[in-house]
Write a structure and sequence with these properties.
Shape: globular
CATH superfamily of the largest domain: HAD superfamily/HAD-like
Number of helices: 8
Number of strands: 15
Helix content: 25-40%
CATH class of the largest domain: Alpha Beta
Number of domains: 2
Radius of gyration: 19 Å
Strand content: 15-25%
Largest sheet: 6 strands, parallel
Order of helices and strands: EEEHEHEHEHEEHEEEHEHEHEE
């Protein structure tokens, strides 16, 4: 697929649009370009802590205007996936959740009941308040027959103080204790991208995915049948690409290269600096 056929955009957030709460060059202009052209788009994140409304406000504080309906989290993808699994004729589905508001809100809005008694699913997402009691409860419920779902596989996450254990690390602990492997919805599972496409009513052949990680964004975008664009403003460097048996359709230094009126890496109009 050529870039000229792109009618819809999916983009990662961290490392593509923002870095440590600071907007990256061209990010605000690219979002405005999509709005001006009335192009469907979604900003994707594996973070399940925050609701789309929370993330919209956080991005606004960073100088980026992204309406909450343009944000798709692993929590929303997980709730959508589970809603399609439940037999509604038997009543509402039920979950025991290890996670925060982004996940519980998404599941509530999808019609699920939160319970510690014989739930259909144990759903593990990101939280800064993991407790031994909650993890023990999750282990026991899975051993009693609840199905094990995880929002995303990320083993660590960033913080101002350094690396933190994240969803994948806690899921591994629970999996080891139960002998049960979870179904993981978020990137690099292309399920998350397909749910985003369905949410937009878009087709993969006319959609591009912008990401900064070869091992999640690019591989999942490729497996979902999308045009993939790797930006070198985040995790993956140009020297990393040769380590993988697949390649993105396009490699750019930053999203400023996608603007109709191109900027340089410092946000200056290239035409004016010639």
């Amino acid at each position: 697929m050529s870039g000229e056929n792109i009618e819809c955009w999916l983009t990662d957030m961290d490392g593509v649009l923002v870095r440590e709460h600071e907007p990256l060059p061209g990010a605000a202009e690219l979002l405005e370009q999509w709005r001006r052209k009335d192009l469907p788009y979604l900003v994707l994140t594996n973070n399940s802590i925050f609701t789309a409304r929370d993330l919209s406000a956080r991005l606004r504080n960073s100088g980026l205007v992204v309406p909450e309906e343009r944000i798709w989290t692993s929590a929303l993808a997980t709730a959508t996936f589970l809603a399609n699994q439940v037999d509604r004729e038997k009543g509402a589905g039920s979950c025991y959740v290890v996670g925060e508001a982004g996940l519980t809100t998404a599941l509530h809005e999808a019609g699920f009941i939160m319970t510690e008694t014989n739930p259909d699913y144990v759903v593990v997402g990101e939280t800064r308040n993991y407790s031994f009691e909650a993890i023990t409860k999750a282990v026991r419920l899975i051993l009693e027959g609840a199905r094990f779902i995880v929002t995303n596989p990320d083993a660590t996450g960033p913080s101002p103080e350094g690396v933190l254990p994240a969803t994948g690390a806690i899921a591994s602990l629970i999996s080891k204790a139960t002998g049960s492997a979870p179904y993981v919805v978020g990137k690099p599972n292309p399920m998350m991208f397909r749910s985003a496409l369905n949410h937009l009513g878009a087709h993969s052949m006319q959609t591009a995915m912008i990401g900064d990680r070869m091992d999640t964004d690019i591989v999942a975008g490729m497996e979902a049948g999308m045009h993939t664009i790797l930006v070198l403003s985040g995790v993956s460097a140009a020297s990393d690409i040769s380590q993988y048996p697949f390649r993105p359709n396009r490699i750019i230094d930053g999203v400023y290269e996608l603007l109709d009126e191109p900027l340089d890496a410092n946000g200056a109009d290239i035409r004016g600096s010639a």
